[in-house]
Amino acid sequence: MSLVLDPAAQDLLFREARTANTFTDEPVTDEQVRAIYDLVKYGPTSMNQSPLRVTLVRSPEARERLVRHMAEGNQPKTAAAPLVAILSADNEFHEELPHLFPHFPQAKDAVFAERPVREGSAALNAALQAAYFIIGVRAAGLAAGPMTGFDFEGVRKEFLDDDHTPLMVVNIGHPGPDAWFPRSPRLDYEQVVTTV
């Protein structure tokens, strides 16, 4: 059985999409970011908890502060990208559950009263949403450069608070010259899928 999604869209989102390492100086607008969010917000999370939070780093001053926390090899990419997003997990996501999960508003206290439970659930579900976010960036015709090479505690202290856990930093823009490393191998179906 073939996929229903148009092959060109499959290529845009998956086959031809890569992590970008250079970008042009063409700006990424707030309207583009809103369109990305308005698409990816429909991706599923457990109990619709939606714990992903996005911090857009736009000002030169904020960019300098962020670059200091990036791993050495990631600093030039983050300094030059038209837009950088810090993706984090909101460990207090449960406060929104009465609105987001109205058929079981008691979930806020019945399931997520304890902070360690929230942190585990927020990390898993925000990471899932981060993957949707990257696909949304691609759907907007932009390239994403997601990175985990940075000082997590430094970024949390600099840009977030104790209720937010950074997950990744994503450079966003139109790909520049030599933006792509060669495609790395992938596992075959038989290496991944088991039927029981």
Describe this structure in words.
This protein has 196 residues and is of the alpha+beta class. It has 9 helices and 4 strands; from the N terminus they run ααβααβαααβαβα. A 4-stranded antiparallel β-sheet has the order 1-2-4-3. Helix 1 crosses helix 7.
Cα distance spanning the termini: 21 Å
Whole-number radius of gyration? Answer: 18 Å
Instruction: Give a quick account of the main beta sheet: strands, pairing sense, barrel closure.
Output: 4 strands, antiparallel
- General form: globular
Q: Helical percent range?
A: 40-55%
Number of distinct beta strands: 4
What would a concise description of this structure say?
With 196 residues, this protein is α+β, with helices and mostly antiparallel strands. Helices cover 40% and strands 15% of the residues. Helix 1 packs across helix 7 (115-139).
Keywords:
four-stranded antiparallel sheet, alpha+beta, globular, 9 helices, about 40% helix, about 200 residues
What order do the helices and strands come in, and which of them pair?
Elements: H1 7-15, H2 30-40, E1 52-57, H3 60-67, H4 75-80, E2 83-90, H5 97-100, H6 107-110, H7 115-139, E3 143-147, H8 152-159, E4 164-173, H9 189-192
Antiparallel strand pairs: 1-2, 2-4, 3-4
